[in-house]
Amino acid sequence: MEINLTWDLFIIVFFLVIIAYSFVIGKNQTIKVILSSYVAILAADGVGNLVQKYIFGADPVIKVLVVHADNSAFIIMKIMIFVLLTVLLTIRGAFHIELYQDKTRFFSTFLTGAYGIMSAGLIISTILVYISGISIFSLNVVASPDNPINNISDESSLVRTMISNYNIWFSLPAIIFMLSSLFGSSEE
Question: In b/e form, how buried is each residue of 71-95, taking b as 16+ CB within 10 angstroms?
């Protein structure tokens, strides 16, 4: 049996790893990962845009730091900031998530799985969006023929789908969290 390593296979395996990890850490910690991811997405995009504009841009604030960097430097920087902040906020963040106790074990398991899927989709699609060079704030696309996402998306319909539906992956965890909070029981 021959297994070809493709981007689709990589994404599916990454999804399964994050979903399995969500069951290991539980529903509360998975929500913490999602919330940390939201903060990290905004911070990584903002810092990346500021660095690109003021340090590497046409009108740098400090003329001594004018350096010509290729687009991959910004892509790598945003991904590193995103991953680092997500991990640090999840592990050491000064907030604690304590959701209500679900009425049934099935519902609790279902929600843990749903949050795991949403967490995986949010993290993977964010990394793919950063690789594509899209800025979440300004919707600027780094148009470059050597952009690595061009080759990846040509080979993988899953990558194209995740990037084109990024807004769904970004908003769905918050919607699921809100809906599950509305229909859950509260601890008294």
Answer: eeebbebbbebbbebbeebbeeeee
CA distance linking residue 158 with residue 153, whole number of Å: 8
- In whole angstroms, give the CA distance from residue 28 to residue 183: 17
What are the pLDDT digits (tens) for 147-160? 667 777 778 888 88
Average pLDDT over residues 56-83: 67
Is the predicted pLDDT of residue 66 greater than 60, yes or no?
A: no
pLDDT interval class at 72 (50, 70, 90):
confident
Q: pTM value?
A: 0.82
Write the DSSP assignment of 39-78 as a string of letters.
HHHHHHHHHHHHIIIIISSSS-SSGGG-----HHHHHHHH
Between CA 11 and CA 45 the distance in angstroms is 22
Alpha helices in the chain (DSSP H): 7-25, 27-50, 71-92, 105-132, 148-155, 157-164, 166-183
On whether the CB atoms of residues 99 and 176 are closer than 8 A, the answer is: no
Q: 185: alpha, beta or left, given left = phi > 0 and alpha = psi -120 to 50? A: beta
